[in-house]
Amino acid sequence: MDFFAKIAWIIPLLPLAAFLVLMTLGRGFRRAGAWIGSIGALGAFVLSLLVLSERLKPHAIDYSYNFSWISIGEYTLRIGFEITNLTALMLVVVTLVGLLVNIYSAGYMASDERITVFYGYVSLFTFSMLGLVLSDNLLSFYLFWELVGVCSFLLVGFWYARPAARAAAKKAFIVTRIGDAGLLIAILLLFWNMPGHALDFTSIQSIFGGHGGSFTDGITTVIALLIFLGAVGKSGQFPLHVWLPDAMEGPTPISALIHAATMVAAGVFLVARTFSIFEAAPAAMETVAYVGAFTAIFAAVIALAQNDLKRILAYSTISQLGYMMVALGLGTMTGAIFHLFTHAFFKALLFLAAGSVIHAVHTQDIREMGGIGSRMRVTAWTFAIGGLALAGIPPLSGFWSKDAILTAALEHNPLLFGVGLATAFLTALYMTRLFVLVFLGKSGSKAGEAKESPLVMTIPLIALAVLAAIAGFVELPWNGWLSGWLTDEVIEPHGSVAVIGLSIAAGLLGMLAGWLLYGKGIAGSQPLASRLPRMVKLAERKFYIDELYEMVFVKSLRGLGACLAAFDTYVIGGAVKLAGSAAGAAGKLGLRLQNGQVQTYGVAAVLGVVAIAVVVIGRRMLS
Amino acid sequence: MLPSYLTMGAILFCIGLYGALAKRNAIIVLLSLELMLNGVNLNLVAFSKYGVIPSLTGQLFSIFTITVAAAEAAIAVAILIALFRARGTVLIDAFNRMRR
How many CB atoms lie within 10 A of CB A607? Predict the structure, then answer.
């Protein structure tokens, strides 16, 4: 019955095998790199699909398997894997996007020297992400969580010859590390306080779900907030969002895979997985909701003023992750997972389409593009579908998931609903601006040489475009199939005509405004910059967050580091050098005596004997 | 009688010691070493005759010493000749290769 769930542990091992083969034998076969990586991803995807198909049967039972890993005294640490509806869904999303990115990269990275290394890293990333999804306890989850961070570091810094890529890789690693520290402390707190030191998700759920255990409200809130800190780091929420836009220095397929569809979703997945803790801590829930809402609108405003194609999409990712956090904070875990599900497809699509454009025009500045829609029809159409899905235009997938979140917001908190609606408007506005500046209008300076990308790149685009268009139908306002499936509860239809109407209106208004401002050109080429120079400048410089961090944290830490380095060089190093030079001086002194003359040594020996004799005889005489 | 023999032995030893430590010519140094050995021999013989418990052991020892000294002198002179052939000098302060 649950045969495929039992062998689900093979799923992450396939990309791992691909990684090992590529890393050990990779130099030998450049062409085959793409094949090996893609076959690993394909195998994982097929298996994931089979697992999901098993889960789709009614009354599927969660399957988990664990074994004892480490025994210390009376405590036994057990690790293993767990198949629930949520993990099965995530498996399919991760492997599907991973597979399409693998195929796409064969075209995008074809001329790169280190393409096999690239595929090796991608396979390692897929392995760690799948391990993270399958983990049945927080400790192995944390292990894979860090492994994902390492892969992100490797892939952002893939073109390490560029100083910007190196800096971005370091930034991504260090900033997410701040969040990881929070998660680690949360795990330690749980380890101390859980009965039997259990760290597996099932026990956590049963303890917190029953409002029991030895947890006071205070410690529950602290644990929830620390877990959320980890999610903030990984999912690029304010104030740890700064690494995500910089991470766009990596190759574009990576931006699609890691920084849009999978890794950044790990934060949302973490909160969803430990959702019972959050449900037991209302203060933490509110924090999640407000941080998410602020991030959503904040990033949307910044996206409006950026000129780098990938950075706009990066800020849009941050903004959409904010939406998911809002959903989690409002208690609708299924809404967050639904948005994660649809977002994975349309954002991966947007990034891959953007990569196709960058591949053709060799620039990322949207002011240098323009008018390439007619030269790259497939890319333009698929990008349009992704953009419309992101902007929340029915019946594309983004509309339904955004609608689910907005409905929940209207029920619980009108303020969050307003912010969500404003963000939806801004989203439609910046996506229209992006589309108009890149694909329509007059040809830009770099647009002349643009050609459509090869089939190996356009086929993943088309596949993702289909998914981005239809993925939303798994849950409609009047038919909560996904929610029911995820939570095993019967969900009442929760649609609200007002929300649907307002949401459509916001999206259409945003598009209309974007068309009027940028498409018709009624207000010049830089319509906002001339009207609201201060505001645009502020948003263009990302509200000076980077500069602020540079001033407050980086400078002070550099200063502290310089002090410590000076202490190390002069105090500790000085002591060591002193010891060394003292020994050296003693040696020099000894060398003086060592003149090679036997007679000198004889004199010394005689003097020694005389001295001993004097001492011995002197003592005799005295006593 | 004993003190005069002992004094004689001490004088011989000291002259030998001075020569061994102060002379530059290696031959003289060798001769001085013989002098020191003989100072010691004198002591041994004197004690065996006039000591608290007279015994022949001391004289026996001195005969051993003389034999060993003869062998030592033969080897030392052989080494000195080899050194002289190699280095062209018997001045002892020229032989400081160990320093480097």
Answer: 10
Number of H helices, E strands in chain A: 28, 2
Q: From the CA of B98, how many Å to the nearest CA of chain A? A: 6
What phi, psi does A365 have (nearest 5°)?
Answer: -85, 120
Q: Please judge whether A599 and B95 are an interchain contact, meaning their C-beta atoms are less than 8 angstroms apart.
A: no
**Pairwise CB contact (< 8 Å): B20 & A603:** no
Give percent of chain A above pLDDT 90: 7
Contact between A435 and A387 (Cβ < 8 Å): yes
CA distance A53 to A35: 26
Structure ipTM over 0.90, yes or no: no
pLDDT digits (tens, 9 = 90+) for A451-476: 777 777 888 888 888 888 888 787 77
Strand partners, A611: none
The A-side interface with B (CB below 8 A) comprises 594-599, 602-603, 606
**CB-count exposure of residue A618 (10 Å: 0-12, 13-18, 19+):** exposed
Q: What are phi and psi of A209, to 5 degrees?
A: -65, -30
> Measured between CA atoms, how close is A606 to chain B, in angstroms?
9
| Euclidean distance between CA atoms A509 and A505, whole angstroms | 6
Secondary structure of A487-509 in HEC code, one letter for each residue:
HCCCCCCCCCHHHHHHHHHHHHH
User: CB–CB of B21 and A594 under 8 A?
Assistant: no
Mean pLDDT of A222-231: 88
pLDDT on residue B15: 94
Q: How confident is the model at residue B37 (pLDDT cuts 50, 70, 90)?
A: very high
**Full-model pTM:** 0.76
Domain count, chain B: 1
Cβ neighbours of residue A582 under 8 Å, at least 6 residues apart? Answer: none
Interface test with B, best of A598, A603, A606 (most B CBs within 10 A): A598
**Residue B58, domain extent:** 2-99
What CATH number has the domain bearing residue B38?
Answer: 1.10.287.3510
Contact B99 A598 (CB under 8 A): no
CA-based nearest residue in chain B for residue A594: B99
Helix (H) or strand (E) holding A295: helix A282-305
- At residue A588, the pLDDT reads 87
Residues of A in contact with B98 (CB under 8 A): 596
How far apart CA A16 and CA A46 sit, in angstroms, is: 16
Cβ-contact A103, A459 below 8 angstroms: yes
Q: In angstroms, rounded to a whole number, what is the distance separating the alpha carbons of residues A255 and A105?
A: 12
Q: Are A350 and A421 in contact (CB under 8 A)?
A: no
Q: Compute the distance between CA of residue B62 and CA of residue B66 in angstroms, rounded to an integer.
A: 6
* Cβ burial A81-94 (10 Å sphere, 16+ → b, else e): bbbbbbbbbbbbbb
pLDDT in tens, A96-125: 888 888 888 888 887 777 888 888 888 898
